[in-house]
Task: structure prediction
Amino acid sequence: VANLAARTDRLAINCARQPRPSLYLAGDQLDAAGIRREGEARRQAGFETDILTRSMLRADYGIDRPAALRAFGDFGADPTRLTKGYLKAAAAAGATFHAPVEITGVDARPRGVTARTKSGVTIKCRTVIFATGYEFPKFVPLDGHSMVSTFAFATAPQRRRLWPQECLIWEASDPYLYMRTTIDGRAVIGGEDEDFVDAEKRDAMLERKIKAIGRKARRLFPKLDVTPAFAWAGTFGASADGLPTIAEVPGLKNCWAVLGYGGNGITFSRLAAEIIRTSLTGGVDPDADIFEFRTAGGHAAKKH
Result:
């Protein structure tokens, strides 16, 4: 997150970036004791973390939960402007864009890769990186990864009703609740994931799911107007261990895949940029083996 923020500032991308603390609330997956253990583990890993008791949560945020963790160094931003800024920076550095285009196959060789498109055009390059969300070619292994449906809505602008510090909120529950704010004073609230990807079935559940999410948010902040101004459902990916896959595709020389398409996709993408850049410039990232492709059992496959 710190590296992403620094790079964004260095490129002078105007995306309304604003520092935000994060709250991780006790829930049905982690009670107060579990939250304390998690907090101590984060501290031992070097992350500044406050462990908040019920009385501290009430005093600082008006939230009635047994415990929470408060973390620092996160930020909120306009994701569209952030993305556009990086695309412009890539173009200024010499990137060429082919869009819209569908890649139908690749010919991977030791000295480079040729990508074939549906229109018959070929694109030649030294390296291919598949970073295509959850829609991947059949030759990219997907062991350990799954697709789920998620639901969210945005309220009308209501700056005066928003919670203190407009912190990013996540709860240790299943199904979970998350909350954040936008630069124009809306609350974005979501969760209630389901383990299927049928779009028709998912969309039919939208109204019921949004009401459930709204009830949870209202219990947390009774003064917040949780009337949806916009509501949506979508598909995203998850992994059994919560980690992305960032690695060369087995059996395809000079081809990489980034399976970091879940709720942490932006930060996983930053990890991928660092790991792949290091490899392509002749180095070895010390954390690269954590993100190797999984075996059928869900564990990272080691290179030999």
In short: The helical segments are 2-10, 32-44, 54-61, 79-92, 199-204, 206-220, 265-280.
